[in-house]
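Minutes, project check-in

Agenda point 3 was the complex the collaborators sent over. CS summarized: two entities, 679 residues total, and the question is how they sit relative to each other. Sequences were read into the notes so everyone works from the same version.
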Amino acid sequence: MFRKVLIANRGEIAVRITQTLQEMGINVVAIYAEADAKAPHVATADEAYPLSGQTPSETYLNVEKILGIAKSAGVEAIHPGYGFLSENANFAKACQAAGITFIGPSPEVITAMGDKIIAKAAMEKAGVPVVPGWTGDATRIDEIKQAAEKIGYPVLVKAAAGGGGKGMRLVHEPEELQAALEGAAREAKKAFGDDRIFLEKYVTRPRHIEFQIFGDSHGNVVHLFERECSIQRRHQKIIEESPSPALTPELREQMGSAAIKAAQAIGYTNAGTVEFILDVDNRFYFLEVNTRLQVEHPVTEWVTHQDLVRAQLYVAMGQPLPFTQADLSQDGHSIECRVYAEDPQNNFLPSTGTLHVYHEPSGPGIRVDSGVQEGGAVTVHYDPMLSKLIVWAKNRDAAMEKMLWALSHYPVLGVTTNIAFLHDIIAHPAFQSGDIDTHFLERYPVRDILSQGENQSMSLAIAAAALSQSSKAGAATQKSSSESVTTDPWLLAGAWRGV
Amino acid sequence: MPTLTLQPQGQESPIPVELETMTDDILKVMVEDTQYALKLCWEAPHGGWVRNTETGEVIPFYIWVQGDAVSLWMKGKIYPFTAISQQAKRQAGTGAGAHSHSGEVKAPMPGTILKIMVTPGETVEANVPLLIMESMKMEMTLTTPTAGTVTKVLCEEGQLVEMNTLLISVAPEKDESDVP
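CS then shared the predicted structure for the full assembly.
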C-alpha cells in the first residue's frame, strides 16, 4: 500500500481524489499555484507545497517543479487527475525514471492513443468498428478527392493530434475540400505542432456514448458500462448520464464487448474510456480512447456502486482489479451536470470574479464534486468549471426530477453561471424524451431553451425589500434577528444612498 | 414612503418600487399595480427567505449588490437589475431608459490587450471596434459605447489588465435630442 501520494492537479478533481486516498489511509500531498493558496484542494490535503508562478506552464504543467516536490516530499505515486499532465506520456515516463508510480496507463499506451491515426488503425486491426475514412499523404489532393467521393459527402477533415474541435472542418461539397484541408492543417500545426490530417465520414445526428474500461497488470479487463455525453457545447460535454436512454441490452452488450476488445488490443491498464459515436441506425463507431480518469466518472461510480479512484490505486500498486465483470451491473440512473462560470447568453464566454454567494444543494441522491467555496475567486488562469452536480435515482424520470430540484436550489452570485441553462436543458421535452445528439444545442439554440423568469414583479418586490432592509443598517438589524446584515459590506453601497 | 427604482436588465424602462414598513416587520411593497405584504427572514449575510404574508408562499432568495448592479437569486433564477438613483435619473433626464451615455470603456474581464485600433483625438462612430483583448484564451472586441471623440487611451498592447480597468475614454458628441 502506498503511504504518500501527490495529486498533480487542482480544483474539484484534486478534492475528490484526496477523499478516497485519505479513506485508504494514504497521506495526500497537494501542490498549488499562488492564486490557489486558499483553495479547498490545499485545505483538504495532508501536506501542500506551492508552485511559484501563475500560468499553467509555470505551475500545474511544470514537470520539473512537480517531480522536485514529489521527491523531496517522499511520495511513492502521483495521481494526475484529468487535464494538465494526465495524458502527457513524457510526464508518465519522467515519473517512472524518478522511481515514482504514475497512476494511469503506461506511457506507450498514452502515446499511441494520443495519436488519432495510430489509435484508429489499432482499433480497426482489433476488429472494433471505426468511422469509414481515409488516411495518407495529405498533399495528394486527387487521391483525397477520390477518397472523399468513396466515403460520401459530407466528410469531416480532422487533425491527427486533434481535440476540442481544433483542426476540424466539415466539408459538404467537393469544391470546399481543398480549402478545408489547408485550413485544418494550418490550425492543427498552430495548436498541436503537428499538421497531419485525415478524413472521416460525417455521421449525422450522432450520439456520444463512451464505455468506462479498467485493466490491471494481471491481464484482467472489464467495462463499467456506458455514459451518454451527447449534450455538448463548443465540443465539450456539459451533461452526462448512465445508462444511456439509447441503448438496448443487446446494443450495450455489443458495445461493451467492443470496448473490452479495444482495451485488450492495446494492453490497457488502469482506468480509461473508449468513446464511440452511435448513429441514428444504431451503428456504433470507435472515436478515441481517453487515457485518464474522466470528468464524468461519478455517474459510473453511482450506478455501479464502485469507487474508481480506489480501483485506480489498487491497479497502480500491482494488485488485481477489485471487481470482475460478473460483479458489475447498472443500478438505477445517474445524471451529471457540469456547472461552469460562463454566460450561455453570450456565446458561453467565461465569467470571472468572486463567488459572493455560493451554496451547493444537498440531500438524498445528490453529490456535488466541487473545488470552490463562497468568497473564492474564479480567475482567467484555469478552466471555469465550478463543480459537478451529480444525482442518482431509481430511473431516468426520477433522476431528471431530482436534477431539476437540485439545479433550482443552487444559488451562485458574483459570477455568471450556466445553472439556469442546465435546468432548462433537462426540462426540455427533447431531453426528457431522450431524443438527444451532439448537435442538440444547434437544433435548439440557447435563446429557445432558456426560459424567462416568470415572476418579474415578485423579483422586483423582493429585491427592493431586501435592499431597503439592508440600507436601514443598524435599525433593521436590531429588529430582525440577523446579525449579518450590519456587517454586510454592501450595506454601504453608494447606489442606495439618498434614494 | 421610500421609493427604489430598479431597471431589469434587458428592459427599456426602470420600474419604481414603493415600500412601507408595517407592524411585525411586514413590508408593504408596491410594484406597478401589484401590492405585496412581505416578511424577510435573513439566514445568511446575503439571503434567506421571504414569506408572502397574504398567500403564505415562501420564497428563498439571495441578493448581491456591486455598485449599481443588483443580482437577485430567486427560486433558481437570477434576476439582474440596475439600481437607478435619483441623481442618475436627473442626469439622464426624464426620457425613456435613463440610459447612460458614458463614454468610458472598461475591461469586462481580466485579460491581455492584444490590439488597440484608435488613437486619442480620433472621431469615432458608435459601435466601432476600439480594441481587442484576450481572456481565457478567447478574443473579444470592445466597441465604442457612443459616437464621439477618443479623449484618452489608458492601456497599451500586451498589457495585462484587471476587470473594470478604464481602458479608453470617448467624449460623446453632442446629443441632438437634447436640443429643444
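Noted in discussion: The first strand of chain B starts at residue 3 and ends at 8.
Follow-up: revisit at the next meeting once the mutant set is ready.
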